[in-house]
């Protein structure tokens, strides 16, 4: 890893911890500054790391850009949850495209077994609550769940720990976010969503260095 990439990782980690503290204390103004800064710093990391595949680098940067849009939308007090879902969906689709570079069917099958097992434990109760929100949001979240699961399987298929861990953390973050919004708030759930999300993004960017 280059010196510039390391420094930017430190900046991203510092901004993430400030964001978690802001969320914990409901300091919305500080959260508006810190959370986007994490992703902006990670874009810098992606630009600074040494890699021979600039196409995949570009796709990861685009995924970070879509994530940044989702972050800003979901932080807004009167935000539309649907708009945040769409921006996050774009980010996941871009990550799938990037992760396809290292796809291995044997590793993906193992990941698929794990993903399906987790989905059976969480999705039924979540979707029961979502259906009360209307047909359109139900279809959107169903499609989103499929895409997130595909991303997790694609990440497992790389057989690279950073990618698999990043996707797993992303699934946990998204599941908890949806649970907090449509089922019931989990104690400390909003802070945990941010912690999982930031660790996921860092892991997926570090995958570029492998």
**Mass-distribution shape:** globular
Number of domains: 1
Helix content: over 70%
- In total, the number of strands is 0
**Biggest β-sheet, characterized?**
none
Average of per-residue pLDDT values: 85
How far apart the termini lie comes to 10 Å
Compile the SSE list and pairings.
Layout: H1 3-24, H2 28-48, H3 54-75, H4 81-99, H5 105-130, H6 135-156, H7 161-182, H8 189-206
Helix pairs in contact: 1-2, 1-8, 2-3, 2-8, 3-4, 4-6, 5-6, 5-7, 6-7, 7-8
Report on the architecture of this protein.
The chain is an all-alpha fold. The protein has one domain (3-209). 82% of the residues lie in helices and 0% in strands. The protein is built from 8 helices and no strands. It has helices spanning 3-24, 28-48, 54-75, 81-99, 105-130, 135-156, 161-182, 189-206. The termini are close together. The relative contact order is 0.13.
Summarize the structure.
With 210 residues, this protein is mostly helical. It is 82% helix and 0% strand.
Question: Main attributes?
Answer:
mainly alpha; 210 residues; 82% helix; single chain; globular
């Amino acid at each position: 890893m280059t010196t510039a990439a390391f420094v930017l990782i430190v900046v991203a980690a510092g901004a993430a911890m400030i964001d978690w503290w802001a969320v914990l204390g409901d300091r919305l103004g500080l959260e508006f500054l810190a959370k986007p800064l994490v992703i902006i710093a990670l874009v810098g990391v992606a630009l600074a790391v040494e890699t021979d595949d600039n196409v995949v680098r570009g796709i990861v940067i685009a995924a970070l850009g879509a994530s940044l849009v989702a972050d800003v939308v979901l932080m807004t007090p009167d935000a539309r949850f649907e708009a945040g879902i769409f921006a996050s969906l774009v980010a996941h689709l871009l990550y799938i495209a990037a992760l396809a570079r290292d796809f291995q069917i044997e590793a993906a099958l193992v990941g698929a077994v794990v993903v399906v097992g987790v989905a059976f434990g969480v999705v039924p109760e979540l979707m029961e609550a979502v259906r009360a929100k209307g047909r359109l949001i139900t279809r959107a979240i169903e499609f989103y769940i499929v895409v997130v699961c595909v991303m997790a399987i694609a990440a497992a298929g790389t057989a690279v720990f950073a990618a698999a861990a990043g996707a797993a953390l992303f699934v946990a973050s998204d599941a908890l976010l949806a649970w907090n919004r449509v089922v019931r708030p989990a104690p400390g759930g909003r802070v945990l969503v941010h912690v999982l999300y930031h660790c996921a993004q860092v892991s997926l960017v570090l995958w570029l260095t492998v």
